[in-house]
Design brief:
- The protein is built from 6 helices and no strands.
- It has one domain: Ferritin, CATH 1.20.1260.
- The protein is elongated.
- α1 runs parallel beside α5 and α2 packs antiparallel against α5.
- InterPro entries: DUF4142, Ferritin-like.
- This is DUF4142 domain-containing protein.
Length: 190
């Protein structure tokens, strides 16, 4: 075996290991998405809702900043910028609602991601270049499904009228994001 054979074999092993890791990351993200949706379906207390909504917005903003840096696709770039703009707006509206709410304090608003979303961000950063857009869009669909469930549950059953109004206001925006991300995801080459 010559030196080229060793290099090629090493490169193939590295690519295979990266592919396996990416596949495992996708499975972890999918399982996390199911857990998140189950939690969102039962979030009717103001402190839990505020925490979940704030983390959702932070995740959307952080993941979309990564997308702006990594994607080469103009449609994905445009969607990522819209996520940053709309979720920054949503965060500001949530902050205002929290200030007006008798059920929560501004100290209830987290300023960092939870472990599950940190892992999703890590997986997004680690996604191979040729799978980045699909990874980003799949995560976006899962995150917006969870956020839609969160907003609908709180809008219908939440314990604070000010926050229920917030959930009612932002629900259509999140629903439109979900529809848009699903369309983008299905248009991506496999």
């Amino acid at each position: 075996m010559n030196m080229t054979d060793h290099t090629t074999t090493g490169t193939n092993r590295t690519q295979e290991a990266g592919g396996v890791k990416h596949t495992l990351n996708k499975a972890v993200d999918a399982a996390g998405g199911m857990v998140g949706q189950a939690g969102a379906a039962t979030t009717d207390k103001a402190p839990d809702f505020v925490e979940s909504a704030a983390i959702s917005d932070m995740y959307e903003i952080q993941s979309s900043r990564i997308a702006l840096d990594r994607t080469q696709n103009p449609a994905v770039r445009e969607a990522a910028q819209k996520m940053i703009d709309d979720h920054t707006d949503s965060s500001a509206k949530l902050e205002t609602a929290v200030q007006q709410s008798p059920k929560v304090e501004t100290s209830n608003v987290p300023n960092e991601l939870d472990k599950r979303r940190e892992k999703m961000i890590e997986h997004l950063r680690e996604a191979p270049a040729d799978a980045f857009d699909r990874t980003y869009l799949k995560q976006q669909v899962m995150a917006h499904e969870e956020a839609t469930k969160l907003m609908h549950t709180y809008r219908d059953d939440g314990d604070c009228q000010v926050l229920r109004s917030f959930a009612t206001e932002v629900s259509p925006v999140i629903e439109s994001h979900l529809d848009h991300m699903k369309r983008l995801e299905t248009s991506m080459p496999r």
